[in-house]
Design a protein that fits this description.
Length: 210
């Protein structure tokens, strides 16, 4: 479900963030919040465009009905964040840490999430489209109805992940770390099947003819 954004958004000017800030029905654009630190910030029904949160520490961030376009959230620390009906469009999230996050109806489209950390995250209706997720980790995550559509998952870590209705078709799986328990509940293409078997440590050889 798409974020529910008002037709008219009030322009919000920001130079910093502080604990328990709340913003709603606003547009935040071309703002540099590099290395910001604030707890329990709430943003609702808002549009963020070209906002830099590089290196920011925003534990317990709350996003509801928010769209982020062209934002840089690289190496940000967003532990225990909560997101509902949120879209990340063409954003940079290199090394972002979303440990123990809770997500519902969240879309990442054409984003760079190389090295991102989603360990112990709980998510429903999580969708990645044409994203770079190489070296990302989802270890211990609980993912229900997740889609990786034409994503680069090379060297990513899916150990101890609980999947339910997951679709990895069309994605690159080279060097992905995954265990047999995590494989249960995912859908892959026939072309990916042999590769997946190899990732599980199974050697496939044709029977020799005598």
């Amino acid at each position: 479900m798409n974020p529910k954004l008002p037709k008219k958004l009030e322009k919000i000017l920001l130079s910093t963030l502080t604990d328990y800030d709340e913003y709603a029905e606003g547009k935040i654009a071309s703002t540099d919040l590099y290395d910001a630190f604030a707890k329990n910030v709430i943003i609702e029904e808002s549009l963020l465009q070209r906002v830099s949160l590089t290196g920011a520490k925003l534990p317990k961030l709350r996003l509801r009905d928010v769209r982020l376009e062209g934002c840089d959230i690289s190496v940000a620390f967003l532990e225990n964040c909560r997101m509902r009906r949120v879209e990340f469009i063409s954003c940079r999230l290199l090394g972002v840490q979303m440990l123990s996050a809770e997500m519902d109806d969240v879309l990442f489209k054409e984003c760079n999430l190389e090295g991102a950390v989603f360990a112990s995250t709980k998510a429903k209706h999580l969708h990645f489209q044409k994203c770079i997720l190489s070296n990302a980790t989802f270890e211990g995550a609980d993912l229900e109805n997740v889609t990786f559509d034409r994503c680069d998952l090379s060297q990513s870590d899916f150990r101890n992940v609980k999947f339910q209705d997951a679709d990895l078709r069309g994605s690159i799986l080279n060097g992905m770390q995954i265990d047999a328990k995590a494989v249960k509940g995912i859908v892959i293409s026939s072309e990916q099947a042999i590769q997946m078997v190899s990732l599980l440590g199974v050697v496939v050889e044709d029977e020799e003819e005598y």
